[in-house]
Amino acid sequence: MKYMTSLEIRNMWLNFFKDKNHTILESASLIPHDDKTLLWINAGVAPLKKYFDGREKPVDKRLANVQKCLRTNDIENVGYTSRHHTFFEMLGNFSIGDYFRDEAIEYGFEILTSEKYFNFPLEKLIFTYYPTDIETRDKWISLGVDPKKVISSEHNYWEIGAGPSGPNTEIFFDRGEKFDKRGLELVSEDIENNRYVEIWNIVFSQYNADPKLKRSEYKELPNKNIDTGAGLERFASIIQNAETNFETDLFLPIINKIEELSNVKYSGQTEFKIIADHIKTLVFTIADGAILSNEGRGYVLRRLLRRALKHGRKLGFNKPFLHELVDVVILIMQDFYKDIGKNQVIIKRIILKEEKQFLNTIADGEKHLIEIINKNENIISGSDAFKLYDTYGFPIELTEEYASEHNIKVDLLGFEEELNIQKLRSKNARENVSSMQSQDEKLINFKEKSTFIGYENYTANTKVIAVFDNGVVLEETPFYANSGGQVSDKGTINGIVVNDVVKLPNKQHLHLLEHNLEVGDDVVATINQEYRNEIRKNHSATHLLHQALKDILGNHVNQQGSNVSNRTLRFDFNHFEHISNNELIEIEEIVNNKINENIPVIIKSMPLDDAIKLGAQALFGEKYEDIVRVVDMGYSIELCGGTHVTNTNEIKQFSITKIESIGSGIFRVEASTDKFIESGIKAEIDYVIREINQLNEKGLSLDQNFKMFETPKITGSFKDIIKAKSDLEEYRTSIFSLEKTLEELKTQNILKNADTYLPKNPQTKEIIKTKDINIPTLKQLVDVLYDKIKAETLLVVNITDDKATYIAKTDGKTNASDLIKTLAKLSNGSGGGKPNLAQGGTKDFNSLENALKIIKEKL
Q: Second label for 33, Cα 20 to 30 Å away, from 188, 230, 256, 808?
C-alpha cells in the first residue's frame, strides 16, 4: 500500500469506475436543488434520488462521483473523535437497474486490493453482511476473503420508511492492536473503537419496504439498484498512515496555518481540529451560495463560525482569524474543485464581517455566562440561556458546550418556551393578513377553467363563469393577476373599473370590482395599455438589475423579494456588507448600457431542466412547473411568468433612487424607469431642496452679500441623489463657517470696545451688565474688564431673551463661588465654581433685579 495524496485517491476512484463504463458526475452543490426534505446534501446518493425513485431518467445507468457532503447532527463530536466531520467528501458508484450484487462486490474487491489500485492488504480488511443475505457472504468468500473476517450483523440493512430498501455490506480496515487490543468482537458487537475503520458501504437496493410487513415479506423491486459510499477522509488517513483524519493532507495544511497564526504547537488539541473542520465547511457552503443568518442553513453556519471562534479563544485568538484560513482551504482543494476560488475575496470578507460582529458581543456574553455558572447552580435556566441567545448571539448549542465544560446542564425546555414567546410577539406584531385560500371555502373548491391570454392580448370578448361577493372570474382574461412580485393590471370589464386582480387557489384570476354581473354574461375585458407598458419596463429592468448586482457585488447575490409596479420597482437581495455609491453607480450604468444595446427579449416555454442548462436563474425556494417560461435578454436569463418588453430599448432609461438595509444581510434597492425617473429622484431629494432653501434664507440674514446656493438639478441618475446630498453637506459646512466667522468678528469687536461696558468711574468692586453676548465671548470679556479696572471683585451679568448668565471673578478675598451661589439663591437660579472664578444663571428676571441690589449692598 503506497502513499497517495487525496487528489490521487479521488482520481483513482473516478478513473477506475470510468474504465468500468460509468459516467462520471461532477459534485452537486451542498445546497439541495428542488428537495425540501434536506437542509444540505448529506450523502453521495442525495442528488441522485430522482433517478432511484424513477422521477427522472439518468444520463447513464452506471454513475460514479466524488460528492461534497455536509452533516450537522454530530457537531458536538467534531474535534473530539478521530473521524467526525461536518464537511466531508463521499466517493460513490451507482447502478440504476444495471449491474447488481456480484458485480458491485467484484468492483469493490478489485479497487481495494489490486496492486494497480489502492492495494489494501486483504488480511487487513473485514466485511459485514445482513444475516439472511447469504449471497453476499458467499461472494466475499469466493474472492478469497477469510470466512472468519466475513461477519454477520443485524445492522446491515438499509431502509427509511416505505420505499426502496435492502441489505448492505460494510468494509472495515484493521489499523492494528496499537489502536485497541480487542479484536473482531469490536465489529461483530458494533462497539465504538478506533481500530476498525469503516471505509465503504455498499447497499443492495432490492426490496420495497412496507411498514405493515415483516422484512422477510417485502416484495422485490422490478429494478434493482446499487448505492455505495466511501469516505475520502478515512481512505486518506489509512493510505497516508495518519493517526486521525486531521493529520492527512485534507486538514494538516489548515492546522499548520493555525499553528503559525496562534504560535501554539499542534499536538492533537481538539481546538485545532474543530477550527480546521469548521472553516472548511464555511468556505464550501459560502462558495455554493449559502449566507449566514439566524435561521435554517444560515443558522447552522453562524453556529459553526461562532463555535470555531469560541475554541480559537482557547488558543489565544482575541481578534478575527478565521478569514485568514480561507486561502489555505482553497489552496488544498482547488486542484479538484476548480471553482472553489472563484469568490475567494468575497468568502474572506463574509467570514471577517461575521467574526467582527460576534467578537463585539462574545466577551460580554462570556462574562455574563461565567456569572451564571458561578452562582453554583447545577442548571442554566431557560431565561438565562435565552438572554445569551437573544442579547449576546450565543447559539444555544454553544451555551450547552460551555455548560458541559463546567459539568452543569441547560434548561432546554425553558429556552424553547422563551423562544416561542418571542416568536409569538413577532407574529402578533405583524399585520394579521390571511390569504385568499384560507378566507373562503368557495374559492378553494372553485375549479372551473379560466385562461389568461394577456401576454398577447389587451382586450377579450369573453364570458363570466363565476361570481363571488367581491368579484368575477372570466372564461378568458387579459388581466395579469398579482403574482411573482408584479402588481395586477388596471382596466375595465364592461366599463366597470377593476380595482385589483388576484389568483385563486386553483390559479384562476379573480377580478375585484363593484358589479351586478351574472354567470353567463357576455363582457368585454380591457386592460389599460399604458399602465401595462409601464409595468413591463420596470419588470424587465428588474431582471437586468438582478444580473448587474451579481456582476458587481458577487455571484452570491440572490433575489429575496420583489415588487414591480408602474411607477417603481423594488428589489430585495442578500449581501454581506455596505454597498458603496460607486458600486451603485456602476450597477446603474450596466443596466442603462444593456438598455441602449437594443437587446431583443426572447420569451419561450421549455422543460425546467433545459432552462437550468441554458443558464436561467431559478429563485431559491420558488416552486416551478415541469414546463417553465424563460425570459431571455441575452445578458440576463430568468424563469418568470411576468410581463416584459420585447426589446430592452423600450425601457429607455433606468435610475436607482434608494438603497437601504432591511435586515441581517438583506438590502433593498428601489428604482424607476423612463418618465417616472424624475419624480422618483425628486421624492428622494425633496428634503434636500427644502433645507437648501432654508440655508439660503439663513445666509442672507447673516450677510446681505451672501451668494445663494444652487438647488439640485435632475438629470435622471442616482448620481443626482448622491450630488444633492453631498452638496447639502457642503452648504451646511459653509453656513456653519460663515456663522463662526461672524461670531469671531463680533467677539473681536466686543473685546476691542470693552471700555464701552465700563461705568465712568469704575470701582474695584463692580457689577457690570451686558446684553446678547455668547458665553465664550463673555468669559473673555470678563478677563479683559477685570484687568482694566484692576478689580478685587467683578460681577458681569449678561441678559438674553430667555436667560441671564452671571460670572464672578475675584482676587480671592471675596469667594467668587459663594458670591454666585448667593446670587443664584436670590434669583431662583443655579451656579457655583472656584474661589476666584464662578458662573451661574437664571430665567427669573423679576427676582434678578432685586437680587443684584442685595449683592451690590454686600459688596
A: 230
Q: Where are the alpha helices (DSSP H) in 292-431?
A: 296-313, 326-333, 344-373, 382-392, 396-405, 412-429
**Residue 847 CB neighbours (<10 A):** 16
Give the bridge partners for 670, in sequence order.
Answer: 570, 658
Rounded to 5 degrees, φ, ψ at 218 are -60, 140
388 with 397: CB under 8 angstroms?
Answer: no
Q: pLDDT-derived band of residue 414, with 50, 70 and 90 as boundaries?
A: confident
What secondary structure letter does DSSP report for 851?
Answer: H
* Cβ atoms of residues 673 and 652 within 8 Å: yes
**Domains of the chain and CATH, by start:** 6-245 (3.30.930.10), 251-361 (no CATH), 375-433 (no CATH), 436-527 (2.40.30.130), 754-858 (3.10.310.40)
Evaluate whether 643 touches 656 at the Cβ level (below 8 Å): no
> Bridge partners of 660?
668
C-alpha to C-alpha distance for 692 and 58, rounded to whole angstroms? 67
Q: Give the three cell numbers for residue 281.
A: 465547511
**What is the Cα–Cα distance from 547 to 535, expressed in whole angstroms?**
19
- List pLDDT tens digits, range 314-337: 999 989 999 999 999 999 999 999
Note whether 262 and 284 are within 8 A (CB).
no
Q: Give dist(CA 6, CA 336) in Å, integer.
A: 10
Instruction: Compute CA 684 distance to the chain's CA centroid, rounded to the nearest angstrom.
Output: 27
Question: How big is the CA angle at 254 (ends 77 and 195), to the nearest 5 degrees?
Answer: 45
Our separate counts of H helices and E strands in the chain read: 24, 32
Percent with pLDDT over 70 in the chain: 96
The set of cell numbers assigned to 282 is: 464555511
Q: Report the distance separating Cα 687 and Cα 55, nearest Å.
A: 58
> Cβ distance 805 to 823 under 8 Å?
no
Return the DSSP state at 75.
Answer: G
Report d(CA 7, CA 248) in Å as an integer. Answer: 12
Name the phi and psi angles at 699, rounded to 5: -60, -45
Nearest CA-CA partner of 104 in 56, 166, 28: 166
Q: Distance between CA 9 and CA 13 in Å, rounded?
A: 6
C-alpha cell at 7: 487528489
Question: Is residue 175 within 8 Å of 242, Cβ to Cβ?
Answer: no
Residues 199-240: tens digit of each pLDDT: 999 999 998 888 889 998 898 887 899 999 999 999 999 999
Average pLDDT, the chain: 90
Range with lowest mean pLDDT among 6-20, 231-245, 353-367, 675-689:
353-367
Count of beta carbons in the 10 Å neighbourhood of residue 855: 21
Strand order in the sheet with 509-512: 496-498, 491-493, 522-527, 459-468, 471-474, 509-512, 500-503
Residue 641 · residue 658 · CB < 8 Å: no
What does the alpha-carbon distance between residue 315 and residue 274 come to, in Å, rounded to a whole number? Answer: 12
Cell 422521477 belongs to which residue?
55
pTM of the model: 0.60
157: enclosing H helix or E strand: strand 157-158
d(CA 462, CA 520): 9
Please say whether the beta carbons of 398 and 307 come within 8 A: yes
What residues contact 701, with CB distance under 8 A and at least 6 apart?
none
pLDDT of amino acid 433: 28
User: How many angstroms separate the first and last alpha carbons of the chain?
Assistant: 108
**Cα–Cα distance for residue pair 631/614, rounded to 1 Å:** 11
Number of C-beta neighbours around residue 827 at 10 A: 27
